[in-house]
Write a structure and sequence with these properties.
Elements lengths: L3 H8 L22 H9 L2 H9 L14 H7 L3 H9 L13 H7 L6 H13 L7 H9 L8 H9 L2 H9 L14 H8 L2 H9 L14 H4 L4 H9 L7
């Protein structure tokens, strides 16, 4: 959750469009004083905001290529992450071959599982490429459900109908939500398997459920044409 300071700071700044560039597009990177990266690591919103306002690029790195975004993710600094997203940071900027999504997964262990899921959701929404999707999103998301076993989420991710039906028959709460209000149907929409979506809705999944931030199921299928079409056929509304 953003601090009062960061909320006030963000409200006073023009919001740049989120960076939806792919890795094939060149990101402008500048090296900065290591103390700025350290400020991102420690959650010093005022220091990082001041640097951005002074002209420092949100994609800035230290001499080793470790960026403000990488620092925010690995040190679980959500306020810094939100600030950088507002300033249009490149959410696909790698560090030593690892994408921000991959770093978010790695830092989401122990007591950080719920907040780790929220960080991953923010990165995906901001345009993070999903090449690391199975290793990042599904690895974290399955830890959040209380009554749903890991295998249930895996069966959705793989489109394994036989296993999925076995889990549903075990009287699972098909509409259970985890951090950020994500449900099994949201996972199915992201994965984009029409058969899985139809089955979950048939079993009672709410086709118009929303996350805590108000994102509808349809939003998660925005890059999955077949899944989106099936959801609309089943009554899903309000893409935006």
């Amino acid at each position: 959750m953003l601090s009062t300071l960061s909320l006030t700071a963000l409200a006073s700044e023009p919001i740049n469009k989120l960076n939806l560039c792919s890795r094939t597009q060149q990101t402008l990177v500048q090296q900065v004083d290591p103390s700025i990266v350290e400020a991102a690591s420690s959650g010093d919103v005022a220091r990082v905001l001041g640097a951005l306002q002074a002209g420092v690029s949100p994609n800035s790195t230290d001499s080793e290529g470790f960026s403000l975004l990488h620092a925010a993710i690995t040190e679980n600094q959500d306020a810094i992450l939100d600030l950088l997203l507002k300033w249009g940071v490149d959410v696909n900027q790698p560090f030593m071959g690892s994408s921000p999504l991959s770093l978010a997964r790695t830092s989401a262990g122990g007591d950080n599982k719920a907040s780790g899921l929220r960080r991953i959701a923010k990165l995906v929404k901001a345009g993070a490429e999903l090449s690391d999707f199975d290793n990042a999103f599904f690895t974290v998301i399955k830890f959040g459900f209380k009554s749903i076993p890991d295998g249930f989420v895996d069966s959705i991710a793989r489109g394994d109908m036989r296993r999925l039906e076995l889990y549903v028959r075990a009287t699972l709460d098909i509409n259970e939500q985890i951090a950020d209000g994500i449900s099994p149907l949201h996972v199915a929409a992201i994965q984009g398997t029409p058969e899985v979506i139809r089955y979950l809705v048939k079993c009672g999944a709410d086709v118009n459920s929303r996350t805590e931030r108000g994102a509808p199921v349809l939003w998660f299928a925005k890059d999955r044409p077949q899944a989106k079409r099936v959801l609309v056929e089943l009554g899903a509304t309000e893409m935006n």
